[in-house]
Structures
1.
Amino acid sequence: MLYTSELCWIKSSFSGDGGNNCVEVAAAEGGRVSLRDSTRPSRIIPTTRIAFHALVQGVKSEGFAPVQD
């Protein structure tokens, strides 16, 4: 098991410097990808490269409906 301190987390340059309100991503063992919310860094979501690529493509193409509050 990898701990958060063992991963090199990165965030988008679009996140700005205003605080912790972004999704961070890190390369993990075995060609996997880990995601986390910067406001809850201890909660890590492991996924595959293929699933992460599909997520990124969906976001870029605006393929997701907005979340209703």
Note: The chain has a mean pLDDT of 84.
2.
Amino acid sequence: MWVISGLIQFFPISNNMRQLMYVSQVIFHVLAESQLYLAYILYLANFLRENYSYYL
């Protein structure tokens, strides 16, 4: 890991690369959270449809 940080400090594109890595991590986390949320909503809707379909 220290090799990667050393390379990042060595190259002049360090700040841009660091910002790009940070932004991509944030976007990845947001997408993962939204997919988890969507999967939970779909699971809940399927559960309600299977168990309470005679009420609707």
Note: The mean pLDDT is 75.
